Amino acid sequence: MSSVSWSAKNTHEEEIRAQCGFTRHPSLCVETLTESGSRNKADFMSVLVNKTIYECKLPVSNFERLGVHFVSLEAQHTRMAMDYCHELIEMSVKRLNQALDALKESPRKHKQDIQTWLSAVLTFSRNLQG
């Protein structure tokens, strides 16, 4: 590998690490951006939002599959909690899709909306963990 290409690659990786340093999960951010292959800094946010949408959708089918097992009267609290989690995940995916659309259209113009939608997703996530 030539020193020029090594230097460019090293600089790109440093930029990814620097940008991911502002996130809640820097190592996952670095891994996601590195795997994406995108070298365009403007695409970083879209790559991360797409990955989050993908990850949010994974448990949805589990809710439907597990829900049939919680039909007895004793299991209703569990069923209600599962339904609440399912609803929060669906709301998160909706907000993430809104953010992704706004990022594609005009990130600068929609900056405040994007921040609001991502903040909502973080709030939903905290509720799921709590």
TrEMBL record:
<dbReference type="InterPro" id="IPR035513">
    <property type="entry name" value="Invertase/methylesterase_inhib"/>
</dbReference>
<protein>
    <submittedName>
        <fullName>Pectinesterase/pectinesterase inhibitor 54</fullName>
    </submittedName>
</protein>
<dbReference type="Pfam" id="PF04043">
    <property type="entry name" value="PMEI"/>
</dbReference>
<dbReference type="InterPro" id="IPR006501">
    <property type="entry name" value="Pectinesterase_inhib_dom"/>
</dbReference>
<feature type="domain" description="Pectinesterase inhibitor">
    <location>
        <begin position="11"/>
        <end position="130"/>
    </location>
</feature>
